[in-house]
Amino acid sequence: MEQHGKAQRAGLTVVVTTMASDSHTWNLVFLQLLLEELGHRVTNLGACVPDGLLVAECRRTAPDLIVLSSVNGHGFQDGLRVIAALRACPELAGTPTVIGGKLGIAGSGDPARRCALLAAGFDGVFEEGVSVPEFRSFVGSLPATSGALL
Ligand code: B12
């Protein structure tokens, strides 16, 4: 039944993006569709996003979740640089931020890489393979804090 005069929160606001070196786009389309299917609102920044633009858009939209995707093999290095820039902004220091995809060139599931990314400030690392179910469960555990009201 339709409800009138009652505000209702509409899922999480999410920024989906890749990083400066990466021109792949179907990974971003996949993530956007997945998150929208789960009821969240997505701003997709697209491919080859410069660090400054990425940080500025996250500051502007104040999302509940930032999702970084990289598949070109530079994700580990790009991710370390970008998470430092995000965490250096007081308003983004606590924003849940995850990274996933193909983060290196020697396959997925390198525990040292995952530990280094978590230590650098990521809240989750979802490398290709078993990543999507884990990612869905991580997203499901997050509270919406900045979502617009319907
Ligand atoms: C199409 C393609 C391109 C196109 C991209 C066009 C476009 N508009 O996107 C073009 C030709 C531009 C390209 C360029 C290059 N590519 Co390319 N490309 C591919 C290819 C064939 C398919 C990628 C794709 O679209 N997949 C479909 C999407 C839906 O799947 P996906 O990207 O794998 O994402 C999935 C998962 O990774 C996961 N995922 C991704 N991110 C995240 C994030 C989170 C949080 C989660 C939970 C999950 C997740 O979810 C998705 C669905 O399962 C792959 C090979 C392959 N079969 O995967 C190579 C591949 C990605 N490319 C590769 C390389 C090396 C390059 C180049 C460096 C080649 C070169 N020497 O120039 C350049 C890099 C350019 C750049 N600056 O980034 C390598 C990367 C190697 C690695 N990481 O180990 C691959 C794997 C090919 C290979 N086997 O060597 N590429």
Automatic annotation (TrEMBL):
Any one Pfam family here would be: B12-binding
- One Gene Ontology molecular-function label: metal ion binding
* All copies of domain B12-binding, residue ranges: 11-149
Organism field: Streptomyces tirandamycinicus
Name of the protein: Methylaspartate mutase
Q: Which SUPFAM superfamilies match?
A: Cobalamin (vitamin B12)-binding domain (SSF52242)
Classification via InterPro entries: Cobalamin-bd (IPR006158), Cobalamin-bd_sf (IPR036724)
Q: Highest taxon of the source?
A: Bacteria
